[in-house]
Amino acid sequence: MSDDLPPLVLLRAFDAAGRHLSFARAAAALHVAPSTISHQIADLERHFGAALFVRGPRGLALTAVGAELLADVASAFERLRAAGARLRRRGQPAVVRISANPYFAAEILIPLIEAFEAAFPGQSLHVQATEALEDPRDLGVDFCVRSGATEVAGLERHPLYEVEIAPVTGGCGRKAARGCIDFPYKGGSAWRRWEQLGGGKRPAGGPLRQFSSYHSAMRAASEGLGATLGMLPVVQPWLRSGRLRRVSYQPSVPLGTLDLVCRPFTPSERTRRRIRDWLVDAFRAAARD
What we know:
The chain is an alpha/beta fold.
């Protein structure tokens, strides 16, 4: 076994594969082909003379040697990321990047930008509206808003509030619309998921309209095109304004928590820590009645 360090590109591939436990997801995070990750991991295993992953029918798993190496590699990359962030901030406007689904980005985040800039002069908030679950350790974002995030080594999860899903329809005096509006949720139908969680049956009668995103479904419901499922209290601003109203005879079902996810910030990253706490407070305030 060589005492020399392996090429950095191999360690970066291993770090991503170890975090995601998937060559495909690691490849997507690093913008390369899955076969590239597979070859790089094989090169790294040859360098160390040890197997780092077990490839089985249930997917990828770290060996004991791989888990030990990942802890050291992840720690080293975290220190490099923090050092790089400090260097990039010198003499340049500071950019804070946050990822959320398009509805949350448009209706919750964007209205907070002026207050954020007043609270943190010289800081610029960049909003990435996407349905993808981005990872702050992949350098694309500093913070992510996720529904039902799990505990992941190397990431902090800050619960914002409990989330429920309930039928909503157009407000502001709109007459009751026939039909339902569906959208994808966790790889399936939002209405089917609501029924599985004990919500009962979706309203009968009228067409079933399909939309590709939660945001477009909310817009369609607000225009009187049918009932859909709103996440409470995320849709609270639209309920307050009258753009939406609850379907009173239909129950809500719990979905877990909405979380702000980020990497741990070092003691020297005081501003990032303050921003994290400010975002948590601001998001909670936006959801109140």
